[in-house]
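Re: folding output
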Amino acid sequence: MNLGILAKEHTVAGPGFNRWLVPPAALAIHLCIGMAYGLSVFWLPLSKTVGAACPADMSLWSELFVTSCDWKVSSLVWTFTIGIVFLGLAAAVFGGWLEHAGPRRAGAVAALCWGGGWLISAYGVTVHQLWMIWLGLGFLGGIGLGLGYISPVSTLIKWFPDRRGMATGMAIMGFGGGAMIGSPLGVMLMNHFASAPGKPGVASTFVVFGIIYFLFMMGGAFGYRVPATGWKPEGWSPEQGKEKKHVTTGHVHLSVAWKTPQFWLIWMVLAMNVSAGIGIISMASPMLQEIFAGKLISLQVGFNDLTPDQKKAIAAIAGGFTGLLSLFNIVGRFFWASLSDWVGRKHTYYAFFLIGIALYSSATTLAHGGHLALFVLAFCIILSMYGGGFSTVPAYLADIFGTQMVGAIHGRLLTAWSTAGIVGPVVVTYIRDTNLAAGVPRDQLYDKTMTYLVIMLVIGLVCNFLVRPVAEKNLMTEAELAAERQLAHERAAAAASEISGAVVSEAKSGTGTLVLAWLAVGIPLLWGFFITVDKAWVLFK
């Protein structure tokens, strides 16, 4: 079905288009869907909307439909888990469709799903139906997350063949930055709409978020342009990329790529890196409080001996710690992906695993030695590599499998994220709870956890070592490549100016448009950055 301006053939850039307009379009979408990481700001307010606790023996199934008592936080958190699972599933299922339909159509569908998910959940809050929140931000929102996440990958890699890592790093940086903007904005909006103790203003906040995210994401979708077949940056030759080790000279079809050992090795590389990092993210605040306890406020007192007011004080400091981790997560996505353009993707992942093993191994010593600043720095570096793993893997896939279907292959690979999103937090919380039940002192609850995380990184290190270039037999023939390009509605550079609606004139690609596009995403990012730094500063006072 041809949807006019959403069709891929009508997004082919003509002469004079500035490729630097594409990253802010991608950032516009990723900054919106990145709020998935910030949903936790709503759990406590949502758990107090009725003012009466549900019976302790109430089943989760009953809780989905109950209207007379408050939901448990643990039940609300399932919204995030469902969203991450469907992110991976949607990316895997619709990745091939995206390559043929184009990033604009995928971005528009993502905007409908993510924006619409907030509106459905808003109605669910109003009528107090938990299943509607799961449906909105979990199922439908998760599909929007998956489509929005992979929508710019293939396009950016084709626009920046000379800087694959940097280009994808810029876009995926936005996913890490979404919560940095959305979390404080959500708190501000809830405070504005709150009308009574039992009316925290969550529903109205969801409506505002749904509208803002839909409009912002549609703006990003309409900002997408794809390069004409054969286009290359001025002064750059494709032979320059082929000189690098582990960079394929051809293209592998999605139907073949996922059957190769290279795909599953990189799948494990991403899964292990993400599992180790996301496990720490899920427990960052309680981990810092339980390990350092009174030391956070210059007292030699264990966690159990703190007064309620003292626990509030260290919770505020732990909040600064989680904000700092979020900031390093964002910066790492750009830094490490850009560095990979110089040192190669495989060497970048070697750095992730080797440095990570060293830092996790030393974390227990730093904790028991009371070295707070070094402990915080170690985990900031770890989280930078967690984010860097996400932003570097699309370029890694392009190096191994070629650029023709890298978006679809990346979508299939994101099932590793869905898996890690369950494995990492479960491992960390299970070990902690088991140790706590066994009477282990709180400052030692995470000692075994670090060992298990090191094992994960060792597995990832071995898998990365085993990655080799794909065999020639797996590459598409010239005829197969031509057929795939026809399915993908690609056009040669010489014909781009003849496509209706494809040409982007020099005026539309001028400096003013470029500045406005970057300001549109840069101002919210700077706002979130300053708020995060302000909150994290308490850690060093």
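--- second protein (sequence, then structure) ---
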Amino acid sequence: MSWRELSPEALEREYSPRLLVPELQPYLDRYAELSAAARAALAVERDLAYGASADEVLDFFPAAAPAAPVHVFIHGGYWRLLSKDESAFPAPAFVQHGACFVALNYALAPAASLDEIVRQCRSAIAWLYRNARRLGGDPERIHVSGTSAGGHLVAMLLADGWQAGFGLPRDAVKGGCAVSGIFDLEPLLRCSINDTLRLDAAMARRNSPLFLPPRPGAALAVVWGEVETGEWKRQNLEYASACGSAGIEIPGRNHYDVILDLADAGSRLGGLALAQMGLNPP
């Protein structure tokens, strides 16, 4: 059955992943606890401004050696929740294997439109490309990952055609992992989340990665948890197919804990992200 044939109540359920877990808060608490531990254990430059607004900041965790690849993590929260402060939990796995790690902040809806959120993330990549070297990173080896709304933003960074407007080469982002993302925003026009996002049909279309193919040659992994709604799985499968990527379902994981595997170099997701940067774990 097409999503267009679903009742309003069924469509709302399909685009409410929190209904598949007993409680959401323990996952958010875990992100925050692990992120605080990462900041306590590692060197980090906090609140580096990549843009003019207070929300356009990032935390940069340098690798031990200079000229290291840079991995940028983009948080989820349906574009309306969370921040970089809950986004440092994968940093130890990347730093220990020779990469710099970036926890990216962006403005949230409804204060910011989705157009503006996408612009901010692209602006952050442009800033990193120009500043990575002085921070200890290699601007020619920038990779990205993100979950849920962050998975969508990863796909928007891998899309082709925006780079010239920011003074970047087409391959400024070498690859990424889009985890449990949403890639066609049209169904959201019929869901209550749009009371916050305030999308119209044109904005939904121009921000739908399904219709914005990745740059040719970009490394892309599309990953999701086994415990996702049917619509969420369909979105990930459809985007992976459109990009010629092998979609990967992680057994036993749900929409909120699948991204915790990024902090584990021995997991399929963590190992894949490191391998994209040529940093295979032992």
